[in-house]
Design goal:
Length: 353
């Protein structure tokens, strides 16, 4: 656990310098996460795909993952995680719901209004954010902005994805990686010097590489109504090797920016909560940042890559298991399709369960 120590004044000044609008600071007040009960192991996948437990474990670090029910949808995951985050925050209220997802229940409308309705938050502002696996960090920045501008006092920020509904079940390079789940945090207005205050969220994108991760068909470019042209192109496709390199570079750069902005040094970071894309990416990121591997939190072994849910689901799990303690200095970072990436910092607050 870290105490305030050197850099605390700079951190406070940095946080204050990033206050905008009415100048309210967004503070994490609750956390929740949920995965559907059905578990699919590597052995289950090997029975129907040309792959093996050995390949999947050694190349990705994944042993099993959770898969949504046949009649389930992303909103079902988001509602469960959102409910737990609200409970952890000690109140059932929020005046905005921001949902990061790549697998909305329907192409139109957004899924967040239904989630808000089912959580008893009808009337709250509710909308989706599309930034693939970095979606949660984009949604977090959006919630922080709503609070800073005085447009909301409590924001429920959810990352939820049902990626198994989007991957080609016959594509062994994606079907073994992606999985389903949801995670959420509650943001409220708070003290910039207090625990839980979000640092500046560093975000970036590179649309020149949009083809590295893509669902080619079903949008306005290849229209869903022209079924003959779309065919199997409605599945998620990824160029793994180049994506891997980009993931390490982009998360490392964003992480350095976020840690510097907080007035910390990388060695001050107690826990890194990075997007769980591949255990080898986490290892390469730890090397790149010179962070001891023991500070890299991970749950990829039993949940796989859950897209926008990845970071908040890991926060929830680590909090529930006592692997996060109040006062820990956290670095959050993510990367994914777009390309898009981001990072931010916070000191973990004392939270309920
Ligand atoms: O979450 C958003 C961001 N996503 C990422 O950051 C993912 C980044 N990429 C990766 O994690 C890795 O690139 C993968 C896990 C997707 C692939 O691992 P890799 O070590 O880069 O494998 P590769 O694509 O270079 O493929 C190596 C071999 C190929 O066979 P040949 O051509 O050498 O004969 C693939 O066909 O492994 C083969 N392969 C498989 N073999 C068994 C690919 N998938 C599988 C599989 N089982 N599931």
């Amino acid at each position: 656990m870290s105490s305030a120590g050197p850099g605390a004044r700079e951190a406070l000044e940095t946080r204050e310098s990033h206050r905008t609008g009415c100048g309210h600071t967004a503070v994490v007040a609750g956390v929740g996460g949920w995965v559907p009960p059905r578990v699919v192991t590597n052995h289950d996948l090997s029975a129907r795909l040309d792959t093996s437990d050995e390949w999947i474990r050694s190349r990705t670090g994944i042993a099993r993952r959770h898969v949504i029910a046949r009649d389930g949808a992303t909103s079902d995951l988001a509602v469960e995680a959102g409910r737990l985050a609200l409970k952890s925050s000690g109140t059932a209220e929020a005046d905005a719901v921001v949902l990061a997802t790549t697998t909305p229940d329907h192409p139109c409308p957004a899924t967040a209004p239904e989630v808000a309705h089912r959580l008893g938050l009808g009337g709250a502002a509710a909308f989706d954010v599309a930034a693939v696996c970095t979606g949660f960090l984009y949604a977090l920045a959006t919630g922080q902005g709503l609070i800073a501008a005085g447009s909301a006092e409590r924001v429920l920020v959810i990352g939820a994805d049902a990626f198994t509904t989007l991957v080609d079940p016959q594509d062994r390079s994606t079907a073994v990686i992606f999985a389903d789940g949801a995670g959420a945090v509650v943001l409220r207005t708070g003290d910039p010097a207090g625990d839980g205050a979000l640092g500046r969220v560093f975000l970036g994108s590179d649309g020149s590489r949009s083809g590295l991760i893509q669902v080619p068909g079903g949008g306005s470019r290849q229209r869903a109504k022209d079924r003959s042209a779309v065919g199997g192109d409605c599945y998620f496709r990824m160029h793994g090797q180049e994506t891997f390199r980009q993931a390490v570079d982009r998360m490392a750069t964003a992480s350095r920016d976020a840690v510097g902005s907080a007035g910390w040094r990388l060695r001050d970071v107690d826990r890194v909560v990075a997007h769980q894309a591949n255990a080898r990416i986490l290892g390469a990121l730890a090397d790149e940042l010179d962070v001891p591997p023991g500070r890299m939190l991970s749950n990829i072994e039993h949940v796989g890559n859950t897209g926008a849910a990845s970071v908040p689901l890991l926060l929830h799990e680590a909090h529930a298991q006592g692997r996060l303690e109040a006062g820990n200095r956290l670095l959050l970072t993510a990367f994914g399709g777009g390309l898009a990436w981001g990072a931010t910092t916070l000191v973990w607050p004392r939270l309920g369960h």
